[in-house]
Amino acid sequence: MTLQSRLNLGILAIAIVLVAPLVLSLRALQQLQAATASLRDQEFAATLLLGRMRSVHDDLVQETSILSVLPSDFNRALYAADLDLLALQTDTLDDLTESAIIQQIRSAISRLQEMAPRAFSVARAGRVRATDSIVDLAMSPALATVARAMENTANAMEQRTAEQVEDFAERSRDAGVLAIGALFIAVLLAFGIAIWLTRSISSPLQELDAGMRAVAAGHFRRPLAISADRSDEFGGLADSFRSMAAQLEELDRLKAEFVSVATHELKTPVNVMLGYLQLLQENVYGELTPRQRDIAETLVSQTQQLSRLIRQLLDVSRFDAGGGKLEARPVVLSEFLTDLERAFRVLALQREVAFEVRSDRDIPHEVLWDPIRINEVLGNLLSNAFKFTEKGGRVALQVGREGDQVRMQVSDSGSGIPQEQLPHIFEKFYQADSQAPLALRGAGLGLAIAKSIVAAHGGAIEVESRVGVGTTFTIRLPIRVIRRPSQSPAVHGDLVQSLS
Prior knowledge:
The protein is α+β, with helices and mostly antiparallel strands. It has three domains: 3-193, Four Helix Bundle (Hemerythrin (Met), subunit A) (Up-down Bundle); 233-320, Helix Hairpins (Orthogonal Bundle), CATH 1.10.287; 329-497, Heat Shock Protein 90. The protein is built from nine helices and nine strands.
C-alpha cells in the first residue's frame, strides 16, 4: 500500500469513526421526536377534547335542571343536539385513548337519549312530579356517571402521560449515555488509528533520519531497519539510501587511499630537500653568505612545516581508512604528567602565561595507553591553549578519576570559540575564528587527529567555550586499553577498553 493510499484510508477511517456517534445521536433524537409527536397528537388532543366534553356535560346538567320549567321544542332540540355532540366527542375520545371507561360514557349517553324525550313529553303535559322523578332517578344519575367516567379518564390520561414523560426522560438519559459512550469509543478508535498512521510514517522517517545522521558522521555501514521490499515509498527510499551509502563509502575509501598514497609519496622528496638544506647550513657545500643562511633557515622552517603537514595528513588518512595503530603499554601517570609539565614550562615562561598541572589523589598509578599518541593529543590542546591566550592569562591541565576512566581537562582564559562553531572544530581542515594571527594558524588537522586518537583508545573528547572567557577541552579515557583479536586488524573499532 502506498503512502498516499495509507493516508487516505486513515483519514477516511477517522472520519467514519467520528461520524458514527453523530448518526447514533440523530437516530435517538428522531425516535424521541416521534414519541413526542405521538404524545402531542394523542394525549394532548385527548385532554383538549375532554375539556370540551366537560363543557357540553355542564350544559346538559344545566338544561336538565330547567327541563320541567321550560320544556319547549327549542330546549328539546338543544338538549338532543348536545347529547349527539357528546356522543360524537365520546367516539373521538375512544379513538384517542382506547380506554374501557369510554363504554360507561356511551351507556350513560344512551340512557339519556332514551329518557330525554319521555321527560320532555311529561314536562309539557304539566306532570311536574313525574318529570322530577325521571330526572332524579334516570337522567341525573346518567349525567353523574358521565362526569365520573370523564374524571376517571382524565386521571388515567394524566397517569399515562406522566409514565410517558418518565419514559421519555429515561430514553433521553439512555440516548445521552449512548452518545457519550459512542463518542468515547470513537475518540479511542480515532486516536488508535492516528497513532497507527503516525507510527507507520514517523518510524521510517526517524529511521531514515538516523541513517542520514550516521552517514553524515561517516558511519556508512549503519544498518537501516527498513526493508527494500516494502511496497510504499519508504521501500524505494531505503533502497536509494543503501545505494547512496555504499557509493559514499567507496568514495571515502578512495579519498583516504589517495591522500595516504599522495602524502606517502611526498615524504621522500620533502625529506631529501630537508636533508640537503641541513647540509647547506652545515657548510658541506661551501661557506654561505649571511643572506644565503637566512634563506636556508627560512627554507628549513617551511620544509619542516610541510613535513608536519604531510605527517598529519598521513595520520588522518590512516584513521579514516581504519588503519590508525596504537602501541599501548603501561604508563606511570604521575611521571607522564610531570614530563608534560616540564615540556610546556618553558613555553609558559616565554609567553608570560600562568601554567599548572593539577591531579587528584585518586588517579590511578598506572594506565595502559599509547603514551606517544596521548602526548600528541595533550600537546596539541596545550599548544592551542597557549597560542590563543594573551600575556597574563592562565592555562591549566586538571586530571582526575571518574569510575573506570581518567578525566583530563585542558582549560585556558583565551579568546574562546563562538558557540555556532563548536560543533565543527573537530572536522578536518576546519579553523575556528579566533584572535590569533594568520601566521599562527595551522591546517585544521590537529583536533581531528586528536579526536581520532582518543576514539581509538575507546574514549571521548568534548569542548566548552565562551568568547572572551576561555575554552575547556575534556578528555575521558579508559584506564586500560587492549586490542581484541580480529580478522580485520585495520579497523580502529577493534580497540576496546578493559576496565581495571
